[in-house]
Amino acid sequence: MKSVEAIIEEAILAGKTTISEFDSKKILEAYGISITHEILTDDLAEAEAAAEQIGYPVVMKVCAADVAHKTEQGLLEPGIKNAAELKHAYNNLTTKARELGGRILIQEMVKGPRELVMGLTRDDQFGPCVMFGLGGIFTEALGDVSFRVAPLTEQDAQEMCCEINGHKILEGVRGHEAVRMDLLSQYLKNLGQIGLDHPAVREIDINPLIVRDGQPVAVDALIVLTEPKPKKSEAKLATGGLEKFFEPQSVAVIGASQTPHKAGNDVIQNILANEFAGKLFLVNPRGGEILGHKVYKSIQDLPESVDLAVIILPAAATPEAIRNCAAKGAKAIVLAAGGFAEVDDKGERLQEETLKAIRDSGVRAIGPNTSGHTSTPHNFTSSFFPLGKVPKGDVSYIAQTGNFATHTMRYIMSWEHYGVARVLGLGNKLDVEESEVLEYYAQDPKTKAIFIYLESFKKPRRFLEVARKVTQSKPVILLKGGATAEGASAAVAHTAALASNDRIIEGALRQAGVVRIYTYSHLFLAAKAISAMPLPKGNRISFLAPSGAILVCLTDLCHHRLGLSVPDVEEKTRQYLQDISPPYIRMRNPVDIWPAATATGVEFAYREGTEAVLKDDNIDAVVMILMLTEETGVPSMDFIVELAERYPEKPLYVTFSGQKKYMDAAKEYLEPRGVPTFPLIEQPFEVLSILARCRKAMDR
Amino acid sequence: MKSVEAIIEEAILAGKTTISEFDSKKILEAYGISITHEILTDDLAEAEAAAEQIGYPVVMKVCAADVAHKTEQGLLEPGIKNAAELKHAYNNLTTKARELGGRILIQEMVKGPRELVMGLTRDDQFGPCVMFGLGGIFTEALGDVSFRVAPLTEQDAQEMCCEINGHKILEGVRGHEAVRMDLLSQYLKNLGQIGLDHPAVREIDINPLIVRDGQPVAVDALIVLTEPKPKKSEAKLATGGLEKFFEPQSVAVIGASQTPHKAGNDVIQNILANEFAGKLFLVNPRGGEILGHKVYKSIQDLPESVDLAVIILPAAATPEAIRNCAAKGAKAIVLAAGGFAEVDDKGERLQEETLKAIRDSGVRAIGPNTSGHTSTPHNFTSSFFPLGKVPKGDVSYIAQTGNFATHTMRYIMSWEHYGVARVLGLGNKLDVEESEVLEYYAQDPKTKAIFIYLESFKKPRRFLEVARKVTQSKPVILLKGGATAEGASAAVAHTAALASNDRIIEGALRQAGVVRIYTYSHLFLAAKAISAMPLPKGNRISFLAPSGAILVCLTDLCHHRLGLSVPDVEEKTRQYLQDISPPYIRMRNPVDIWPAATATGVEFAYREGTEAVLKDDNIDAVVMILMLTEETGVPSMDFIVELAERYPEKPLYVTFSGQKKYMDAAKEYLEPRGVPTFPLIEQPFEVLSILARCRKAMDR
User: Which pick of A20, A653, B178, B603 has the fewest CB atoms within 10 Å?
Assistant: First the structure.
């Protein structure tokens, strides 16, 4: 038998772009994937002999390289039951086979109503990716497929099978045996391996993969070849040294300004407001003094070397400034200016020059076009957006946008009562990119959870590799901007046609344990929750509400939209809830607390009810929905703080109904004391849904 | 040929619960649905003759009543190509046929990879409902089906076909002809008609319905019979007369109380606070005076007849009070007390007595267990929850919950700056129910839009009938509490197994043009928007944001999650946006407004940019995302009010980024002046998505 290498090489030498079905299947077989019993033949006698050997009924196909979609082209005769039918079919196909330079393939007939699809595609970003889904006529119509980046673990393979909408057909349905999941997993992992082993393989389609007696069999297959791309031999940039950004001992601001509201002034104000304890040097050709600090006329004039330089100069002046700073010993540089590749061709050229300056001088650089970075454990920020003192906390951000570290940060500081550890605006990512920052946050003792906004991956496979590790110990939550649904429109293979950027990212992120979110506001709502409270241990929620529609609607929301469960509480809990309530109401989870509140007082009922479910082993997190109106009574909020302190292992969130002024007052009291609140009743549940997914990723 | 009636009658007389395939198909054929060519036979000779007549290949099946799922039971031999195979198959099946009391059916073989399913089920609430979806092995595994309530219009039938996820397979895929949509629609409508014509038909399954050359053919079919239920001859309740609730000239409070914070006191406070202009009488056995009003000792003592009585007495005293009020001329009664069927068996009996009292006296009643009703055009409320003066507006509510008209209303009054026309809490719906209130709101000139929270439908078909009419002129937005996904677990037919309560409600509401929402908070967020501004004419949105991630994330949200489009603006608009912006940025929709704001001032840029897109014919609604921080400048908000006034035909909403205090100040300024604002950037888009669906329903 020819080796896989030989088959591929032969096809390439013959100038083929696809490998014939027969040879494609030989490659699959070599990788442990079951294929149909089949024989290539050159004349009718051989075909008859082959059919006898295989056993009727058989299928006859034209087998040639560069042939796809045989059914549509009439290159296939199914269900041949005997020699007479075989002869008839042979007469139909032989001319076509000759025209296409192919041969006649006799193949056993595999029956089964379950047609699956598997494939491999070589994604521009993530490299070889494996696909699984419903096959046959449904492949494109339903698009019910999932992707993973190769190599796949056993768990990746199993998860991608369970992820499709139609996963139930893998079970024993309608008298058919359950599909052998071990084989499906094995095939998927091995498909990935083909992609890793053979750079010339661009796409693989197995469609249909028919299930016979529980065993999946590749009935048709197509391998598409590609000219392997030479690896870009990019000049190596330095790595490491991010601690100089986050823990600088001395900092120079290049382009310091006297003028209030200019970036070169705001950055100094921010550094002073954050009480940076290291040395601060300012540089401006005019010299003089700014905000009580001496101004040096040039970088060369600086009296000593600096760890970090913040360059706030026009784009054109940036490359030279980098070289000068490096000469002065700076290892880390923040490039604030815009006007680079994001703008025009001239900017693109400037960006190239900047990159060269970075490379030549061996510094690390953030930006250009970054909104700066913040490191509260070190009392430092390089932001030139007026921020003031950034509150300390244990959530860290990576943001490929200027929005977050600027006006969204101002919103958080003005209303959301939580602090941050590190924030880094990536800008144009000329040097420092997300995976390296993620790695830094992973080992950072000050960072408890990581939130990311990304529009593109600079080193996609590296990002996944890092994320896969960090998500085992810290939650990583990512909002991907610029989601597109389009696949490659003119693709030959099904896999490629279905391989939209977004589907592959979806699979890759799941594989890495990164929790994807879709709502910008969750970047701060979930962060606030995670900042104040532990992650829930699971997805089992209890909540207390002032009756009726709120209980019903939120239970619907948890079950049908958020993947949260609202389980029965333990009998002793139920009994206690009943004891504090009037007899006419039958208590359960979720907790209809108002009858008890009416009977025993608002504070007593909410306190006792909340404590009962906080103690309950069936419950992972609790939400209190307080009704606050003058007439029904506004309790003092300290009992909630006490409960949160007494049960530190379970998240307790608060939301409201009633008059806005009391809600705001409760928020102002509770949040600084560690209890997060949410203005709309759905929000704490949306947040819990995100955090329960984080926990699941950590438990993988 | 036997008539449809004869077939059904015969099966019932024979004690069968299902009709045989052959007879089921005869019924379908009589209703214009294409079936397979097929012949029932009694011996091999007849079978051979039948196969010759039909033409090989044929299928042989055991045909008997009370037989479902033939494939799984081995009662089917497909692909018989000649007499020899026929004989073989006959030998296989004939014994089984005899055992089942059936005959041998010879049937043409219909080939085609597209297997659909159609069915009819008799829903407890909505009566005969028609199903459509993907059939064969995928029926239950994918559950990709849609439902409509019979009778179906042509539009209903077309919409339910387009609604399934796999609707693309109806198009010409992979060399197969597009499915004849006219036939699909025809079949679906006629299936519904069978259900309406024949009460004995409980379920119909057509599975598979195979597509041959574009034409759908019923290949297998099953009709399940039922004992028709005798129609409940419920004693007729009065109808009409709702104007006495909403426009009473005189009102009596039965159970008026001296004691503050008791329901019988709060209701009087509310009536006075709302400046009710009619006559108000109070009744309490103790007599005296309450809040300056004389108290009569009994209903009989009232000096004159009253339009409306609000009875706030314990449940047990309610029936007698109804009779007394009716004797005094009251036509409309609000029953505030709880403690009826919602509580226990005793309450259930009391509810029966109350119903009898209502029936006997011919009054109309809201409740019991209602939170009351409000009618601001008439300055009246019967609410006993402390509300104070309810602001006037043009949105009306129907709520099957005490939450809405009480603490949610307080929240709205304390923060959301919009008013209501009518609000009615349905309570236990003993008499007045949702469809009648909906009908009243439909003709109410004070009501512009209708919001509904429902947990059950009292008269489901009546509700749909009314809704179908009103949604052509007014938006109707409904939140259904208590959504369950479970279908009938032990159903024989596929249709019944897939007919979950929620799927049927989903179909019914779409059919009626009612826009379903899933988020409680949207009951007020969407109402605020609709209250201040017109409905958008379509789903084409423009928005202005302070750059970057916000533009990207919100465009993603609009396209992928909300069904909104963010189209190109007209060239003249684009050019104008470019003119007010620095040259380095290329302007388009959505509008990146901050470069212009930096160059020309925040107010100028937002005003000019917003006006440009408001004028644009490609745009149906505009959202301004204002960045508000001290340092970047907080513009005066009056220009926004002016824009809203100058372009009254297009919705203009505002949301924010930046410091909370400026957001709140902007809200306090803008909302009372008719411009709705939203604290989170996603919210105006969520609302526009709902309103665009309302518009689409109105344009049906």
Answer: B178
